[in-house]
Design brief:
By secondary structure, the protein is an alpha/beta fold. It contains 8 helices and 7 strands. The chain has one domain: Uracil-DNA Glycosylase, subunit E. Helix content is 38%, strand content 13%. The strands form 2 sheets. The chain has a 5-stranded mixed sheet, with helices on both faces. Strands 3-4 form a two-stranded antiparallel sheet. The model has no long low-confidence stretch (mean pLDDT 95).
Length: 213
């Protein structure tokens, strides 16, 4: 039986965020690095009370090497500001650190492609290491991929968004696991929504729950 891909050998066992970010640049834990421009690690302070986790970097993030700097990131900035949350005090990252895409037929545009379960598992050691260093009190899952990865495969963002939950037991984190978790939609879904105003208000309402907590 073939050994499943994992980033674990690339994750340093000591050092802070800088050491993790530098090591992540050489990650070959799955095949996504082959097409992506670069690793896109998380950004923000450590420790941080709030940690936002999305699915993966997008086209703009892949080019710039920073998370949440494209259209969805700008919309998230606006929602955070309206909710009274200072983005600079929060840590933002993704479940998967490389951009997965397919090229538009007869064009240069790169179309986002959802990471599969094996790729998410392969990248999990990086997310675990970030949680250990950042030590957030509240984790906000942005979208279904992040929510299912952290809260269980049966979790439904549609049914359970905007609700503060106890963060599940994670053996690797032990007593240092976050206290609470909340899931909401990914800001990219708001950008694409037919009724963008209504979708934005829904995201804002969820973030206001986080702000009050």
């Amino acid at each position: 039986m073939a050994t499943e891909s994992t980033a674990a050998p690339y994750v340093p066992d000591r050092g802070g965020l800088r050491a993790l970010e530098e090591a992540s640049r050489g990650c070959r834990g799955c095949d996504l690095y082959r097409a992506a421009s670069q690793t896109v690690f998380g950004a923000g302070p450590a420790p941080a009370r709030l940690m936002f986790i999305g699915e993966q970097p997008g086209d703009r993030e892949d080019l710039e090497g920073e998370p949440f700097v494209g259209p969805a990131g700008r919309l998230l900035d606006r929602a955070l500001g309206d909710a009274g949350i200072d983005r600079s005090s929060a840590y933002l990252t993704n479940v998967v650190k490389h951009f997965k895409f397919v090229r538009e037929e007869r064009g240069k545009r790169r179309i986002h492609q959802k990471p599969n379960a094996a790729e998410i598992r392969a990248c999990r050691p990086w997310l675990t290491a970030e949680l250990q260093v950042v030590r957030p009190e509240i984790v906000v899952c942005l979208g279904a991929t992040a929510a299912k990865s952290l809260l269980g495969s049966s979790f439904s963002v549609t049914a359970d968004r905007g609700v503060l939950l106890d963060f599940p037991d994670v053996p690797e984190l032990g007593s240092q696991r976050p206290r609470l978790a909340l899931a909401t939609v990914h800001p990219s879904s708001v950008v694409r929504a037919p009724d963008r105003r209504s979708a934005f208000q829904g995201l804002l309402a969820d973030l206001e729950v986080v702000a009050r907590a």
